[in-house]
C-alpha cells in the first residue's frame, strides 16, 4: 500500500476550476437554500458546505480522465455533480436510486446547464449501463467491503475505482481483502487530498479493476 499526499492549495484550485467556480457557487447556493428541506444535507453541515462538501469533492477532479465516469449514490450530487462542473471534458452517469434525489439531480443538471451528465435512477447492483465505466466514484455510500462489489462490476477491465473515504480507510482495506481479490483490484493506493488550508482533508482509495474471476 502506498500513501501519497496531494496538496491542493487555493491558487491551484482556482486555476483548476477557472470560471467554472461560479457554477460551483451557484450549485452551493442551491444546495444551501433547498438541501435541508429535501433531506439532502443536515443543518449542521450548512455553515461548512463549501469547504467540507463542495471543495472536498472538487479536489478529486484531477484524478479523473476523459471518458465515462459513474458516481454511485450521488445523493445531493456529491461528488458527481461537483466533478461534472469541474471537468466538462468528462462524461458522468450519476447513479442514485431515490426518486426525490434523482429529481433534485435532474433539476440541478438543467439549472446549471450541464451537458456532460446523465442521471440514472437505479441501485448500483441493478443498473444497466450502455457502456462500461472508465472510472467510478462514490462518497459516503458504504464500507469498501460492500462498495467494491457494488462498483467494480460497472467498470471496464483496466478502469479505476476512485472512492472517497474517511480516516478508517486502511482498516476498510484490510476487511475487504476477499472482495479486492475477487474483482482483481490491483495497485490499490490511498491518496490524501486537501491537506492545505482550502478544504477538509479527504482520503481517496484508488485502484485498477481487472478481469473478474467467475464464481465457482
Ligand atoms: C449517505 S448518502 C451520500 C450521498 C453523497 N454521495 C454524499 O456524499 O453526500 C448515500 C447515498 O447512496 C445511495 N445509495 C444507497 N445504496 C445504494 C446502492 N445500492 N446503489 C446506488 N446508490 C445507493 C443513497 O440513496 C444515498 O443517496
From TrEMBL:
<dbReference type="InterPro" id="IPR003682">
    <property type="entry name" value="rRNA_ssu_MeTfrase_G"/>
</dbReference>
<dbReference type="Pfam" id="PF02527">
    <property type="entry name" value="GidB"/>
</dbReference>
<dbReference type="GO" id="GO:0070043">
    <property type="term" value="F:rRNA (guanine-N7-)-methyltransferase activity"/>
</dbReference>
<keyword id="KW-0489">Methyltransferase</keyword>
<dbReference type="GO" id="GO:0005829">
    <property type="term" value="C:cytosol"/>
</dbReference>
<feature type="binding site">
    <location>
        <begin position="124"/>
        <end position="125"/>
    </location>
    <ligand>
        <name>S-adenosyl-L-methionine</name>
    </ligand>
</feature>
<protein>
    <recommendedName>
        <fullName>Ribosomal RNA small subunit methyltransferase G</fullName>
        <ecNumber>2.1.1.-</ecNumber>
    </recommendedName>
</protein>
<dbReference type="InterPro" id="IPR029063">
    <property type="entry name" value="SAM-dependent_MTases_sf"/>
</dbReference>
<feature type="binding site">
    <location>
        <position position="78"/>
    </location>
    <ligand>
        <name>S-adenosyl-L-methionine</name>
    </ligand>
</feature>
<feature type="binding site">
    <location>
        <position position="73"/>
    </location>
    <ligand>
        <name>S-adenosyl-L-methionine</name>
    </ligand>
</feature>
<comment type="similarity">
    <text>Belongs to the methyltransferase superfamily. RNA methyltransferase RsmG family.</text>
</comment>
<keyword id="KW-0698">rRNA processing</keyword>
<keyword id="KW-0949">S-adenosyl-L-methionine</keyword>
<feature type="binding site">
    <location>
        <position position="139"/>
    </location>
    <ligand>
        <name>S-adenosyl-L-methionine</name>
    </ligand>
</feature>
<keyword id="KW-0963">Cytoplasm</keyword>
<keyword id="KW-0808">Transferase</keyword>
<comment type="function">
    <text>Specifically methylates the N7 position of a guanine in 16S rRNA.</text>
</comment>
Amino acid at each position: 500500500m502506498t500513501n501519497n499526499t496531494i496538496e491542493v492549495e487555493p491558487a491551484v484550485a482556482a486555476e483548476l476550476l477557472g470560471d467554472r467556480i461560479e457554477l460551483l457557487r451557484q450549485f452551493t447556493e442551491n444546495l444551501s437554500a433547498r438541501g435541508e428541506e429535501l433531506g439532502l444535507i443536515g443543518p449542521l453541515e450548512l455553515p461548512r458546505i463549501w469547504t467540507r462538501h463542495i471543495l472536498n469533492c472538487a479536489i478529486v477532479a484531477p484524478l479523473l480522465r476523459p471518458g465515462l465516469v459513474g458516481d454511485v449514490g450521488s445523493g445531493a450530487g456529491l461528488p458527481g455533480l461537483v466533478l461534472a462542473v469541474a471537468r466538462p471534458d468528462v462524461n458522468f452517469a450519476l447513479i442514485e436510486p431515490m426518486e426525490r434525489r434523482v429529481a433534485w439531480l435532474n433539476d440541478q443538471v438543467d439549472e446549471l446547464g450541464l451537458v456532460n451528465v446523465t442521471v440514472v435512477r437505479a441501485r448500483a447492483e441493478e443498473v444497466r449501463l450502455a457502456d462500461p465505466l472508465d472510472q467510478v466514484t462514490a462518497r459516503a455510500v458504504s464500507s469498501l467491503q460492500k462498495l467494491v462489489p457494488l462498483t467494480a462490476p460497472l467498470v471496464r477491465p483496466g478502469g479505476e475505482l476512485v472512492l472517497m473515504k474517511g480516516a478508517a480507510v486502511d482498516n476498510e482495506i484490510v476487511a475487504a481483502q476477499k472482495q479486492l481479490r475477487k474483482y482483481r483490484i490491483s495497485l490499490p493506493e490511498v491518496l490524501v487530498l486537501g491537506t492545505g488550508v482550502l478544504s477538509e482533508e479527504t482520503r481517496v482509495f484508488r485502484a485498477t479493476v481487472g478481469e473478474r474471476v467467475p464464481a465457482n
